[in-house]
Specification:
The complex is a heterotrimer of chains A (415), B (103) and C (172).
Chain A (H helix, E strand, L loop, with lengths): L1 H7 L4 H12 L4 H38 L15 H11 L10 H17 L18 H10 L2 H10 L3 H32 L4 H7 L3 H4 L4 H9 L7 H17 L11 H4 L10 H24 L24 H22 L5 H28 L2 H24 L12
Helix pairs in contact in A: 2-3, 3-14, 3-15, 4-14, 5-7, 5-14, 7-8, 8-12, 8-16, 12-14, 12-16, 14-15, 16-17
Chain B lengths: L3 H21 L3 H25 L7 H31 L13
Helix pairs in contact in B: 1-2, 2-3
Chain C lengths: L1 H20 L3 H21 L3 H26 L12 H25 L15 H9 L3 H22 L12
The chains are: A mainly alpha (415), B mainly alpha (103), C mainly alpha (172).
Amino acid sequence: MILNTLLDNPDQILVNLFHQGAALLQACPALVIALGILLSTVPLVAIFPACFAITTWLERKGLARIQNRIGPNRAGWFGLLQPMADGIKMLLKEDIVPQTSDRLAHFLAPVLLLIPAFTVLSVLPFSRNMIPAAADTGVILFFALGSISTLPVFMAGWSSHNKYSLLGGMRAIAQMVSYEIPLVLSTVTVVMLTGSLNTVKIVEFQQVTHWIEGSNPALQILGQVLKWNVFTPWGFTGFLIFFISSLAEINRCPFDLPEADSEIVAGHLTEYSGFKYALFFMGEYVSAFAISGLAVTLFLGGWSGPNIRPWWSEDPRALLIPGFVWFFLKMFALILIMIWIRGTLPRLRVDHLMAFAWKFLMPLALINIFIAGAYYYLPHWIGWPAGLIVIYACYEGLGRINRRHLGPKRIYRYA
Amino acid sequence: MVTLQQYLILSAVLFSIGLLGALTRRHAIIVLVSIEIMLNAANLNFIAFWRFAPHPGNLHGVLFTLFSIAVAAAEAAVGLALVIAVYRFNKSPDLEKMNSLHE
Amino acid sequence: MNIAFYLLSALAVTGALLAIRLRNLVHATLCLMFFFISLAGMYVLLMAEFIAAVQILVYVGAVGILILFAIMLTHHITGATRERISSRGWLWGLGAALAVLFTVLLPVLLLSVLPAAPATPDFSPSVRNIGLSLMDPYTITLQVMGLLLTAALIGAVAVASTSVRPQDKPRT
């Protein structure tokens, strides 16, 4: 019977498991609640560290190939056991804590970085009816909990009692706080046009419902793809601003000045060794997953992908390929783009970094809000080209205004 | 069930803790921290009264709290900027030393 | 429900007490952040999710970091210099605060008739109504708030900027 329900609607595996478990455990409501909580949180806690392991492998191989070398290939076939080897190494390393450091803050900082990273995953809809915490204020809860992660970065930098750590920590917080503004402003357009902060409604807004519930497979496929927010002028700009700001929020290249080896000896992470460093690393990657997940939800249509309804199913919203497959595919695509950018672009200097946030991205995000408003009220044949032209004009204008501070263009000649 | 009285007692205790900090500490930044504690206690009061009010569709409590948070943030920013400026002048954040407008 | 309230209130009171008593300023600020987060939890218990999110976003994410930066820039972290006032003054402060608590606040609370249970036991909080209220009766307040925040931003930058005029030489 379980297999039947699984095959009937492969999208809703966990939901069906919960309903069957609830039917079995009808006698004790506390156990039903416990089952619900377990089915929401255990997959998250199991899948995301596994994704973290896969991503470390992907990153090292990807960066290596971009840099014309091979990457780890000793620890198993194609180096696939390298994350396991890294984990064992981190666990067995000696945990060195500086003598004059602040013990409690030094110990708590990696833990406090992981808590918001995992908590914000609960407001992302992984598939239809599969969201761990369906809050009406999902998007703003994500940003609120994400903004807590500036605190452990400061704690790490200050508690190490090391001037490089402190300087790295201060720069990291300044960067994270500055880039929160374009991040949040670029999502205002999505929230404005959807009319809700609820992530489930935002994903439903990006699907053409009457095409999906119809009977024409071509329309079913198109209906899940055409209305994504990224295919509108304000959505495209918003997505780019969001993506760039998210790179800065998680301290990744090209914004990784706070933790760059050649600049500041790993910045706020200098005095962390062994497992605590692994926890910081994991916190950074899980934050990357979370923020890519939010980008997918807000701009790339969430869990919708080119799907058709299985012909044996009576549920009008059943999907052949489950929604969470598309969600993870899109999320990994964004992670791959982040790895690609890391291998390709040079690091930004700290004053360029701050100028980029305050003088370029923030005005562009504000103008994007105006464009979104105009797009809503004007008919499509004016709104589309007008939006594109105005955004491109602002991009060029802001670029020219900011170009004065950059100095003359350098010409490189290779030997 | 938690009664309104328990929320209000909590908010009164938090307010008096903030008051204690503002009256006894000598470091300017801790006094600002105590003022933030007092403002937060008052916000808790507003939200508790809004929740227990007969018409929770009447959103005055929530909106007042929103504006109170915004004002508190603005005041913290300006207050801390002032503390930094006075520190640069007096080389000390001690409130006992900030007792003259001009040297 | 009750357990959550007692836990959060214990955390809030402890955080506030430690925030004003600890000598090490950075520890005091971290306790203040725990206080803010426990108050945000209390707002969620009171069905005001949006205010809880705004509380964390503004207080923990911004005001807390601002206080930490100010502490860094004023350098008196560990309290090596005596920055608490002498014990006679400390007792007067405690007395005044306890007097306010026990003669003004608590009698009013304990003697007034307050509803014991919320009038509408369960309703789902909606952000839409907050947005509509901000646009309809509270438009001017919203604009004034924007002006206030802009003025505070400009003022804070102007006050804390490092251009020292010749007549403001620091006292030694």
